[in-house]
Structure formats: structure tokens, C-alpha cells
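Study this pair:
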Amino acid sequence: QWLEAHPAVDWVSYPGLPSHPYHERAKRYLTHGFGGVLAFGIRAFQAPGEYQLALVDRQGNKQLVGTLPETTFAPRISPDRQYVAYDSSDRTGTAVWIYSLGDRTSRKLSLGDAHYPMWSADGQWVLYTSNAQGQQAIFHQRSDGSGQPEKPTSPARAPESWSTVRPMFSFI
């Protein structure tokens, strides 16, 4: 009950609590105690459905720079540290997005189902995986959104690294 009343706790699930939906059944069947397993959720300190985006330097100094949707995965900062590429899902699928740290807005970069963005060393291109053409493949597209995505290879599951010295990348 103490945990349930704590201001940083959003919810508690424990059959020994009167607020638990199966508390009466637990009293009837768990005659030697309610057990030692409980689950609880920490109250979020940002708007529901969002994650805080922070930049942290090597000394551990943290700078909050905006929010991203809670479905965000694989955020990658651009080489010039002005943008973040990430993938995020909604009811229409998963896409690669570009978030501007300057004006704190996001714009959709990819079409179709796209994942695992990765920046080129010069920040002019974003590499990602997509099955938009029926087979999972790697595409690269200009980071400013101009032009059409190009498919340098398929099949491919995910880009792993993009060379800063030579025009090549690795993937699995």
C-alpha cells in the first residue's frame, strides 16, 4: 500500500492489495500468503507517448534537446550533430524519420516499411533497411529528402557500419 501511494509510482499489481482485480480470489486460494512477486510502473515525467531526447558528452553532461515518439528505435545523430535519424512505428507502419535539433521538428524520410537508419560520414545520405519493394533490402537516400531512394543491395537484413574512408558499408 505504501508503494501504491508513492507519488513516483503509476500503478502496482499485487494480489495482496485490495485494489487488485483478483484480490478476492487470491484471498480464497492463496491461503499461505500472496507471494513475493509484484509488478509496478514508474510514473513518466514527460507527456504520454513520448521519450525525452538527450545528448550526452563524454564527460557525462546531459542536454535535453526535444522529444521523440515512444515507438522510436535506433536513433542516430548526424555527423554534424544537427539532426537525428530514427525509425518509428504508427498505424501505417514503420518509417525512417529525420529530427532537426535546431527547430525540434521531424520529417518522414522513407516510404514503406523502413528500419535501422545510419548516416554517411558526410551526413548527406541515410542508409536503411526496407521491404517496400517486396523483399528486404538496403536503401540509401539523400538526408534532405531530395531524390528517390536507391537500392544498392538485396537481400539484406540490417546495415551495420558505413566506412568513413571508402564508399562501402557492411550489413547482415
Notes: The two ends are 49 Å apart (CA to CA). The first strand starts at residue 9 and ends at 13. The chain has a mean pLDDT of 83. The chain has two helices and 14 strands.
